[in-house]
Amino acid sequence: METRKLTCIGCPMGCQLTVTMQDGAVVEVTGNTCKRGDDYARKEVTNPTRIVTSTVPVKGGRIAMVSCKTKNDIPKDKIFDCMAAIEGVVVNAPVHIGDVILSDVCGTGVDVIATKEVLSA
Amino acid sequence: MQSYDIVIIGGGPAGLAAAAEAKKSGVDSILILERDHELGGILNQCIHNGFGLHTFKEELTGPEYAQRFMDEVFDLGIEYKLNTMVMDITDTKVVTAMNKTDGMFQIQAKAVILAMGCRERPRGALNIPGYRPAGIFSAGTAQRLVNIEGYLPGREVVILGSGDIGLIMARRMTLEGAKVKVVAELMPYSGGLKRNIVQCLDDYGIPLKLSHTVIDIEGKERVEGITIAEVGPDMKPIPGTEEHYKCDTLLLSVGLLPENELSKTAGVELSNITSGPIVNDSLETSVEGIFACGNVLHVHDLVDFVSQEAANAGRNAAKYVKEGAKTASKEIKINAVDGVRYTVPVTVRPNEMDDTVTVRFRVGAVYKNSAVTMYFGDEQVLKRKKQIMAPGEMEQVVIKKEELAKHPDISDITIKIEQA
User: Residue B331, Cβ neighbours under 10 Å: how many?
Assistant: First the structure.
């Protein structure tokens, strides 16, 4: 049996959750005051994911950088790999929201897409 | 002199939403004045996600959220001027502005919507001893440097203040390879959203030290180190609790101040608490025909609420243009007491108000297992239990016109925090 402590992000209450696990499976969630805490804890200990956002340089654009994000959430432990993969990518203007900047980042099956319109200079 | 029915000062989220709604309410002659080279305001540098959950039921980044409102403004054919700085607004609604193409020019508006947003509280507003070396930035300045200009302003970072921008920048700089050593917060609670504490600090093992402040900045040319200490209930540093951090950068995320210099030139009355205009239920200021919305009115946590509020201001400004000034038959004051720091709006006109008016407010401390109550005169009309309320999260109650009409003789409304 192992336990993990988390802070719920469901509301400002920020319940201190304790998750008891055995062989990678959730046995019990305590400390939550509502269902959302239970749901959050189970997802967070078994499959935590995040959307990663960053910027990349843009050539020939009206501005220097274009913002981007992973189109969907990716496993939390891939965040730094994802940042490393984005590092060094340069795109050419024009760039439109939704344009793929890097496909299938780190084998996650998720594309990194532009989140800003950048017109040509 | 040129003239427009509605001139909107600022093309950020508030200005854009106000413009779109004013146009949809039947006013065609609208001009947005924006000092930056693009519309969208501060959202352009807020590249993180989490915007628009309330409005679009999806998580957008700042630039994506801004683009949706910009597209609406473009589709509606609303005029705007970029790189244009407004210098003055008079109480007769003459707007003086300047830019490189038009030089200095004046516009007579029938109605003005103030949507200038806010700015960050600077180091000068804090009493931090030490030299004034390079390497001290407001969190928003660092955000601009990293996300817009593409520079990393430091490698080893200490952050003072746990406002949302500071938390967001703790994560952003960590992802870009900087080491964020600690976030110190003077108050015993964080000023930021819980979600940001978990996803920006906890995720990366960055410690948050509550009831701590910076007591020394070391370094003459560049920041070389920061000393923080715990503070007691009197907010004074406790001797013996000093901790030293070697670092090259100090970020300040210590609050936002509505930017109301122009409102003052127009003679708009400001609140001592919000530093924003005092408005009635139509978001009209003390100067007839001048409306306010967004962070210039009071600092918001969520842009979704800025957009809603701004749409109201746009609709009411359009109504004012079409129907002309009307003197309210009666105006009821909203008292903010017992833990409620302020309300927006400050007054309600029971006869002219919309069917419902949303009153937004902040509490002055953390309240657990309490209730928000509302009184029409002496009669309690609302008691809503809340497990928790914190200064960092805006609260709201709704006043219904129908309900208020049942209390024709009251002279005030009171909103307070009570035992649950």
Answer: 16
Rounded distance between C-alpha atoms, residue B401 and residue B295, angstroms: 26
Q: Taking the CA atoms of A105, A110, A116 and A120 in sequence, report the sign of the dihedral they define.
A: positive
Q: What pLDDT digit, counting tens, does each position of B16-43 carry?
A: 999 999 999 999 999 999 999 999 999 9
Alpha carbons B388 and B368: distance in angstroms, whole number: 4
CB-facing half-sphere around the CA of B144: CA atoms within 13 A: 8
Neighbours of A89 (CB within 10 A): 13
**B149 interfaces chain A, CB cutoff of 8 Å:** yes
- Express each pLDDT in B253-308 by its tens digit: 999 999 999 999 999 999 999 999 999 999 999 999 999 999 999 999 889 999 99
DSSP-derived secondary structure letter, B238 = P
Residue B273 in 3-state DSSP?
A: coil
Alpha helices in B60-203 (DSSP H): 62-75, 139-144, 164-175, 194-196
Q: How many CB atoms lie within 10 A of CB A48?
A: 13
User: Do the Cβ atoms of B193 and A12 come within 8 Å?
Assistant: yes
ipTM of the complex: 0.89
Token duo for residue B323: 């129907």
CB contact under 8 A, B48 and A50: no
Q: Residue B41 and residue B35: Cα distance in Å, rounded?
A: 9
Please give the helix or strand (H or E) that residue B321 lies within, else none.
helix B303-323
Task: From chain A, pick out residues whose CB is under 8 angstroms from the CB of B148.
Answer: 63-65
Selected residues 44-103 of chain A with any CB under 8 Å from a CB in chain B? 50-55, 57, 63-65, 67-69, 76, 79-80, 83, 97
Q: What is the largest CA-CA distance in chain A?
A: 60
pLDDT digits (tens, 9 = 90+) for B173-213: 999 999 999 999 999 988 888 889 999 999 999 999 999 99
Separation CA B98–CA B4 (nearest Å):
16
First vs last C-alpha separation in chain B: 58
Answer yes or no: are the C-beta atoms of B263 and B257 closer than 8 Å. no
Residue A68 in contact with residue A86, Cβ under 8 Å? yes
* HEC profile of A22-53: ECCEEEEEECCCCHHHHHHHHHHHHCCEECCE
Q: pTM for this one? A: 0.93
Could you give the CA distance from residue B362 to residue B300 in angstroms, rounded to a whole number? 10
Number of H helices, E strands in chain B: 8, 27
CB contact under 8 Å between B175 and A80, yes or no, is yes
Rounded Cα distance between B356 and B400, Å, is 5
Nearest to A113 by CA among A54, A48, A50, A49: A54
CB of B102 less than 8 A from some CB of A: no
* Facing residue for A12 by CB, picked from B48, B176, B390: B390
Q: What is the mean pLDDT of residues B221-229?
A: 97
